[in-house]
Amino acid sequence: MKELSRQSLRMIKNIIQEENYTNLKGRIDQYLPQEEANVFAKVAFSGDVGIWFGVEGVNYNSFANATDTEKEEIAITLEAIKESVRNKLRDVIPSVDKLFTIPSTNEIFWYRDSSGLLRVTLAQWGFRSNSSGSPVDVIDVLIGSPRTLSQCDVVIHFSYSDGQRAVNMPFILGIFGSKKNCETNQAGDFVLGKIFIHKKFTVEDDAGAQRHEFTVEQGKTYFVTFDRYTKYSVEIKNQFGEKKPDFKFLIDRSEVSTDSDGAFVSEDTLLTSGKRVKVSLLSGASECVFVLSPDEDDNHFVYTVIDEIRVPPPPVRKVSFRLLDKDGTPMPDLPFQIISKDGKVIDCRTDSSGVAQVPEVKFAAQADYKVSFVITPEYQERLNHIRNQKQ
């Protein structure tokens, strides 16, 4: 333990005579939160000497070494602590007000914690000097001294760029020349407490990328807005649910393309209130709007493209002609003509089976036609040759 003060009990007088001070300190530690309990230094007695100890590892300063501004800050701190301790202990320690009696300001020690807040520790608490003259309540005199400093309550309200309150969000508070990791409450606020007017403080996101600086003023409201980012994907499918890889389309009028899996994945996108993305074809047609969420799992969108379906033309209806000789044998590769009554001619030729397929559209409805062909000696010779080969 770190010794703060040592004094002969002949030089000071205990004013809570009904209490054992060691046990009293134990009850103080039991009923007060640690920060307030540490205001009263731990005490030990060795013969007629009292020794008061502070917390190990704390770099205490004496009241005499404080500046005028720091002394005023000590007085303000003691005033708040005295009121708080009185409310908490008056039912369990009736002599609670006497705890704040000390022989002199030499028994006031102070330091700043990791967040820069001033903390006070009292040695020889519950004792008064044995010197002659009327006793003086050192702390009450200090509290009642004229002040130039004033304080006001500071509450910081946090939100994101999309307008949502920043609930349970970690951030970095900079005040009194140091930085501290903090977190907002379930309302998205952080209660900084009573801070001196004109004191500056900063708020940064936990990555230190976004920083806000404030100066404390009476009646001022403190708002912090941090940028919030998200990602989204757009999957392109046709009307049959088939993915469309390497498909070009527009997002917010900028041309993009799907990957080999038929999807486009965005980079980090700043969220604003009601942030939306507009998806359309390259022509700007078929626009679809998607609303972004801070939760990336909710930002998987599907955009449907209607593929053009090519309907095959109906089959061409044909009229078959089979030419046979007088023996009923097919006549292959034979040119012939189909002649209408009004003299229109359709030139045709049979295939290897003696059949010719003529599109139906070449014939007029209800019209009469005749077939005309000539068997030349050359064709007859060729036909005989074909037939001989088959035998």
Question: Mind explaining what this structure looks like?
Answer:
15% of the residues lie in helices and 37% in strands. With 391 residues, the protein is α+β, with helices and mostly antiparallel strands. The strands form ten sheets. The protein has a four-stranded antiparallel beta sheet, with no helix packed on it. Strands 19-18-22-23 form a four-stranded antiparallel beta sheet, with no helix packed on it. Strands 1-4-3 form a three-stranded antiparallel beta sheet. A hairpin with a 5-residue loop joins β13 and β14. α3 crosses α4. The mean pLDDT is 92.
In short:
The chain is of the alpha+beta class and 391 residues long. The protein is 15% helix and 37% strand. Helix 3 (68-89) packs across helix 4.
Tell me about the largest β-sheet.
4 strands, antiparallel
Q: Report mean pLDDT, rounded to a whole number.
A: 92
pLDDT below 50 for ≥5 consecutive residues: which ranges? Answer: none
Cα(first) to Cα(last) distance is 127 Å
Spatial order of strands in the largest sheet: 11-10-13-14
* Estimated radius of gyration: 50 Å
How much β-strand is present in the residues?
35-45%
Total beta-strand segments: 29
Alpha plus pi helix count:
5
Which of globular, elongated, flat, extended, rod-shaped describes the shape?
rod-shaped
